[in-house]
Records
---
Amino acid sequence: MPSAHTGLQTLSACLSRETLAGSLRPGLATVVAALAASTQRIAAVVGKGGLVDILGSAGLENVQGEVQKKLDIVSNEMMIEGLSATGHLAALASEELDHHLPVAGVQAAERYLALFDPLDGSSNIDINAPIGTIFSVLPAPDGAPSDAAFLQPGRCQVAAGYALYGPATQLVLTFGQGVDVYTLNRDHGEYVLTSRGVTLPRATSEYAINASNQRFWEPPVQRYVAECQAGAEGPRGRDFNMRWNGSMVGDVHRVLSRGGVFLYPRDNKLPRKAGRLRLMYEANPMALLIREAGGLATDGALPLLDIEPTGLHQRVPVVLGSAEEVERIVRYHADA
Ligand code: P6P
């Protein structure tokens, strides 16, 4: 059913159509609808900015040892609340929770696990720059939920996506059959389909990396970025552009929208950390989206979706985006 207001397909209509067609399981549609509704509620709060008491630090630390922003806590509570009554979620995991959280009342045979970073890019909150919510859905194994039940490789995800709270609020979603983009019609409180079957170009001249870490990078990344910076006079024979959002959702959305390569590589700034980004609820959902859009996503060597997880909050190096550039970076790692 198109929206009465825009004529565009609403998210709920798309989910219903795919469910009736048998290409989407009804329980998964229910879980994704609840995820989307939760992001709408977060978008409404984010959009208020300094008008309500949600900016600044909450003065608490999360399991990552990161100081939590007030909006980190509020958005996490909104995600938990919004996922509490689907009847199809056995448990959830969040960047803001040390361990998994069982969800009461799951009776259905069709059971899932939801993982999320409720507010990605927290450092952007107080400067009104892009932030987002990243989510991933896994099948729930039989038996009582546990942290270990979540430790499935990214290729097992049955749905993944993010909401980007920018000038427009957009929901980017995949069920493993391509990537669709929905834009929130704020006047009528519904997501409407605005791009279907998003793909990204194999070639690009745009890269994204936090260049302030340059002295800590491993040689393959040093080489790749130096060649990009050498531009037309260098071995690449063309100039490159660089962008850095400070929010993975913002950078990945640009890569999905016009191509590019995003790197948060392993660095020796904190050698005990394998990278900055978390595998289960940042790297894996983004890797599924990028694969479904025709790109590649690796840790520099292995496809991210094939990594066997060892911990709910484990970190991983991330290189993702346009295939030609990711393949080059993987070659440089192999040659090292
Ligand atoms: P840096 C945000 O905190 C985040 O987890 C990602 O969204 C983002 O890509 C990265 O960290 C930014 O890291 O080192 O630039 O602050």
---
Amino acid sequence: MENAPKKPTPSIKQNLGRHQDPAVRRSNFDEVALGFGQDEAVTEAARCLNCRTRPCELACPVNIKIPEFVDLVYRGKVGEAASKIFETSLFPAICGRVCPQETYCEAACVIKDKFGPVSIGRLERFTADYARQNGLIVPPPCAPDTGRKVACVGSGPTSLAVAAELRKLGHSVTVFEALHEFGGVLSYGIPTFRLPREVVRFEVDMLRKMGVKFLKNVLVGKSITVEELKKDFDIVYIGSGAGLPSPMNVPGEDLVGVYSSNEFLTRVNLMQAYKFPETDTPYYIGKKVIVVGGGNTAMDSARCAMRLGPESVTLLYRRTRAEMPARAEEVENAMEEGIKFEFLTAPVGLEGDEKGVLKRMKCIRMELGEPDASGRRRPVPKKGSEFWLEADSIVVAIGQSPNPVIQQTTPGLAANKWGGIIIDEATAATSLDGVYAGGDVVRGGATVLLAMKDGKAAAKAIHEKLAAGSAK
Ligand code: FAD
Ligand code: SF4
């Protein structure tokens, strides 16, 4: 049913969506945010003023036509709303769940300060879920085959965006993935309680229907090199991500019970260790878990640990809540689930027993000093404030660097001192002809939407190169 022309009602309270009860969800891996029903979506959409200057759309890294899709939701034309989003973003069910809208579109929403922003992310998710569940999503049409071949290394959001854009233009695309599941961090990092796997699989299947080929268990650089790929493909796009863990560099980091977030999340999310022995991969966390870090990875690690049933999970962050890079909503969710936060606290050393098993962590209190290169105030240790926390396991989530295999095995591929592949910002071209790169392997750990934005921009440059006939 189509709604009447809109009379904007911004003063209705912003709807933040329903959530599973914290006391229940802290012991299951089901989705925490329950999404909007259609009535809630229409009411939330009615708050939008349909601004002609489109501040929300301009703030979106991929410029989703927000006022138009929100208006279509209001009118009950959800299929058309989904098509409107698809014009610029092929993965709204993913972005609607994990994008930091509070720093992009919702931060720019003109009603934000007075009434709270329109819940754009939740409306995006509603639109994508409704369209998927009601069979309203048809793969976009693809141009006739050009005969040109592109290989994407890695199957994370940046490669998925490249694959979608180039396939639509008629190029043949093959995605090579080192793991046994596709989706990159969307599959092995972000837990199912934030992003159900069927959502990621649906998007990968849509690309398959468009003709994209997916090959798993292929570690490019070892199973096949970039140079070898170049013999079969006109273009190679490297989207191998940033999964190399950064260590804390404190004594005792090799004790039993100390995990990198990458290992811990891969065990829990990809290998489904929480179902052991039904699955093959076990886990050990013991009674007291400490997670170190303040980003999304730390939050996901802490919340996964909580769901494994320890007595306590404590998160250590060396700055204050205000400086935490994690999404505000996820910090709140973590607090509701009973995770303890120790702000302005950093690890100094770990101590184990005679068998090398972790027992406790020495910590120090910090205070904020002058701003550092990131613009945030630098944490400075407070002399004499050391103390001990008991710990059976620790998950270290303090940052990740670009995966190094390809850089190490591809002669002539220029990388910076952090291992990030160097590209021409305008074209995403690397130092090697016909080889492009984007996403976290270039930026270091960033966001899903920036990885997709890189992929879209690279696809445009790749298409221009292929059209000019100068690849290989
Ligand atoms: P990735 O997603 O890392 O994908 C790279 C893929 O390449 C992987 O599948 C990897 O196995 C594969 N690969 C690596 N080397 C090779 C090789 N040699 N051969 C073949 N395949 C290879 N961002 C948000 O916007 N919102 C969030 O809520 C959020 N939460 C996050 C939570 C966690 C735990 C983590 C780790 C990150 C999170 N991020 C979030 C960041 C976001 O997920 C990344 O910025 C994004 O996934 C980067 O995309 P990518 O395609 O560049 O790389
Ligand atoms: Fe609607 Fe807010 Fe965008 Fe204006 S800025 S069009 S009110 S979502």
